[in-house]
Amino acid sequence: MAMTERTNTPRILVAGCGKLGGAIASLLRDSATVFGLRRNPAQVPAGIQGVKADLMAPESLDKAVPDNLDVIVYCLTPASYDEQGYRDAYVNGLSNLLDVVKGQPLARLVFISSTSVYSQNDDSWVDETSPAQPRRFSGEQILAGERTALDSGHPATIVRFSGIYGPTRQRFLDEVIAGRMAPKKPAPFTNRIHEDDAARVVQHMVLKALAGEPVEPLYIASDSEPVRLDEVVKWVQAHTDCASPVDDARTGGRAGSKRCSNQRLLESGFEFQFPDFRAGYRAMIAGR
To answer: Residue 169, class by beta-carbon neighbours within 10 Å (0-12 exposed, 13-18 middle, 19+ buried)?
Structure first.
């Protein structure tokens, strides 16, 4: 239903209202009534209506999930990083939630995914038309979750995020400053997105859907400059005091070597606040 036809405030459920989900919920609260689902609802951000439920316990969902929802943002991270943990987070939890909202005509289901579903390791560019053939169980279960969303009967959009970094995700920057990163040259290509932009991408998609504007079923969400890991480390070392590399410093990345294209996202009208790693890390360094 287009926004112009609405007489009531849109109702949005953020299922998995943690770090990223909470940021998304906070951005949407001026445009909608926003519910944040998590096991401890006291931890949802201010202005968000907490929903106490466990996506692994269907009986808790029946009583807790609000009626008349317009949008669901599904934003879970695994409780354990084994195959069952990923299956529960990305497939079983979503299936349980979909069972509860079966009769609700959603304007959009937004499923938070990852570019880890791509296994390309040859420095090639990947976009939304590239084959997703993950080599690890984690990517396989995330891809199964995507299919669950797309087969749900609701209009669905998958957002595949590259590596999210920012003020609440400082680990990489901390490691470079402490001398625990010494990648070999040429290091693999890496792809990243600032956490503020990550939340804004989802806000952008939700508001488009609520306004009745076309939204694609799949977007890659990554900044505008894939870059080799050694170049990022060298830039950080040039812009803040860093320790000399330690003997057991990490020499490479973890996720192959590919370059993620954000062209479809840009064509949707999205504008980055942090279009490349320099903009993001410059702000983080200034804030330390």
So the answer is: middle
